[in-house]
Amino acid sequence: MIVFGLEGTAWNLSAALVDEREVLYEKSATYTPAKGGIHPREASQHHAEHMARVVGDVIAYARENDLQMDAVAFSQGPGLGPCLRTVATAARALSLKLEVPLLGVNHCVAHIEVGKWRSGSTDPAVIYVSGANTQVLALRQGRYRIFGETLDISIGNAIDKFARTVGLSHPGGPKVEELAGKARRYIPLPYTVKGMDLSFSGLSTAATEAAKSHDLADVCYSLQETAFAMLVEVTERAMAHAEKKEAMLVGGVGANKRLGEMLDIMCRERGARFFLPERKYMGDNGSMIAHTGLIMFKSGIRTPLAKSCVRPGFRTDDVEVTWGPTNS
Ligand code: ATP
Ligand code: FE2
User: Fold this and answer.
1) Residues 77 and 128 reside in one and the same domain
2) Residues in the ligand 1 pocket, defined by CB under 6 Å
């Protein structure tokens, strides 16, 4: 079967076609703010402007290759309200036009499912790190339970905020990573783990302060080392607690090589396996929505129009994981 998926919770509008085995086609349009961080209304206007071209391109590909779409999946939440509404409107219209079922997909669950699909991990502790989320999760009794999460801002937001205040453009993550590679020394910064939860707000502010009197590369390096060490600590405890022999990294910040390296070392030291999906499936993409829609569809889930309203605060553990074989 073939499922069309549409993602657009924040900066990336992306449509894709997948079948059980592979991604058949994907088309994206990226919103880059002219100044500062993501502005929800501007991002949704961007999505509205590019919707016809992005969706039209995928539909044209399906037609040219004689592919029949069996369902339309869309990112129902969590995300920015105006962006979600633009995406849901397009998805509803397409589902009605094609006369195929609609599937509302949880964006965070989609990051996890596409990660498992592409990396081969079957039952991991998941480190989900992005611009809006920082969570350590594991599947237990049919739901992705949150073992630890940030108490304030996400790790991606902390890095992006710091980057903006020191004059680096959005998104700051990749630029901070590059500068960190040129560092010569570690500058102590606040390390905040409370039980299983994390806090990044004070760390981001302290790094901004440190940048006033220290070399920027050293501060970038120290910010990464501190934030990533906090994440590794919580992940290791979640693995012990949930008795998981695998760990998997997903979300945009997962593109960071140093974070992957630190998690890999921790896993090896405890005789566990570390899984890292390909970079293109780390950040937001249409394929992750299409794939999750496909496995949901196969387990009998449908989203009637009346239940297709957007869910900006949709939590990962609100979703009942009824599909297998990922449901261990
Ligand atoms: P979500 O809605 O799931 O929170 P998102 O909209 O934030 O996702 P993602 O693509 O998952 O989008 O993540 C974007 C984040 O990833 C940004 O904060 C960006 O700085 C960060 N990022 C991207 N590449 C890197 C990198 N190499 N190192 C660190 N952070 C990175
Ligand atoms: Fe995301």
Assistant:
1) no
2) 9-11, 79, 107, 111, 130-133, 156, 159-160, 171-174, 177, 251-253, 255-256, 283-284
Number of neighbouring beta carbons within 10 Å of residue 194: 10
- The residue type found at 74 is F
Closest ligand by atom to 78 CA:
1
Amino acid identity for residue 322 in this structure: T
161/92 same-domain check: no
* Structural tokens at position 250: 């997903």
Question: pLDDT by residue (tens digit) across 231-257?
Answer: 999 999 999 999 999 999 999 999 999
* 3 state SS of 110: helix
The number of domains in the chain is: 2
Instruction: Count Cβ atoms below 10 Å from residue 66 Cβ, excluding itself.
Output: 6
Domain containing 142 equals: 121-279
**pLDDT tens column, 122-179:** 999 999 999 989 999 999 999 999 999 999 999 999 999 999 999 998 899 999 999 9
Q: How far apart are CA 85 and CA 90, in angstroms?
A: 9
Nearest CA to ligand 1 atom 13: 252
State how far the Cα of 77 lies from the Cα of 318, in Å rounded to an integer: 11
Q: Is 327 among the domain residues?
A: no
Ligand 2: distance of its center to the CA of 94 in Å?
A: 23
